[in-house]
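Just curious: can you write a single protein's sequence together with how it folds?
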Amino acid sequence: MWQIRPILAALRRHRLATLLIALEIALACAVLCNACFLITNRLQRMKLDIGVDEASLATIQLTGFEGANVKDLNARMLSGLRAIDGVQSVSVINTVPFGQQAGTVGIFLSPSAQHVSAVIDVYVGGPGSMQALGLKLIEGHAPQESDYQPVDNIFPNDAQVLITRSLADHLWPGVDPLGKEFWCDTYHFQVMGVIDRLAIAQPGSRGASSVDWSVFAPGQPGQSLAGSYLLRADPKDIPRVLRDARLAVSKLAPDAVLDQEDSQLLSDLRYRYFENDRAMSRVLIGVIAALLLVTALGIVGLASFWVGQRRKQIGIRRAIGATRGDILRYFQVENFLIVSFGVVLGIVLAYACNLLLMKRYELAQLPFYYMPIGAIVLWLLGQLAVLGPALRAAAVPPVVATRSV
């Protein structure tokens, strides 16, 4: 501790250099904390549980078919796809998680309500689609045969539906949702069951809180429910099943066009959907590495400059009894004080940046534990960066004190 007062006195004589390094460390601390938080959020987002058995599922998407022939198209596709070896089930559905956005609507809790209670995704699925998805029913009952009603343009009307637990908690907090009703334009829905989870088609596109705001509406395949097919097979067979299904489309539906981009395994749709998140994480990791490298080089440069300036002073200290360890500790403590000052500024800057991100991009609040982690990383970086110059300073021989300036 006896060294701190002379160290502070020396730093006051080099205010500008000390301030520049401290500001560089503050910027590194702020970027490090927020970038690590963003990377963690992206990684958690990529691990999202969508509530379906995606390892067993694939989808076939057709376009370009005539509306007048959809009944025959559905019949041909369902029959032909079921004949593929390894297929456990085939059903018609309007979309799948990570697929094309369909059925996104605002809903009201009464026909006369003026304000939307929630923006949701409505999955409209034919017989067998709920079982194929692997939805977990936690309350109420699953759709019966009579619940599969004709689809009127977009949705079946007066439909008995399943809603997710998070949507039920949002619409009717603390109340049993079974039998509750809601509306969308002229469409009326009544809750017959609650499922654990079912992510919207584009999860995260409307904020983290609404990832599971989904409804499953049973509907009869027909004019407004055609061209999108859900295949289920054993996870080890599903890649081959999808390949065979894609090859079979040209024979089963010569009057339609296979959408190559969206006819995929659900696992591949997930991978594609989060490609931007992976790219962003890689960019942020690169930014962190570059900033830490620049900070380390700045510390090395400043320490090396000070060692060169203080060679005679170091030699004098060695001549009057200072050990190499004393010289080494001097530079390490000096660096620790500069880094600590920068970390304090960095914590303030990190929270300011986080508040800006919260306001502009609806990011969550930065947890406090990122601050000590960032401080420890920078302290370690500072000590490692100053070690080389400090060892050179400790190696200065006492004879330097006898040389003329």
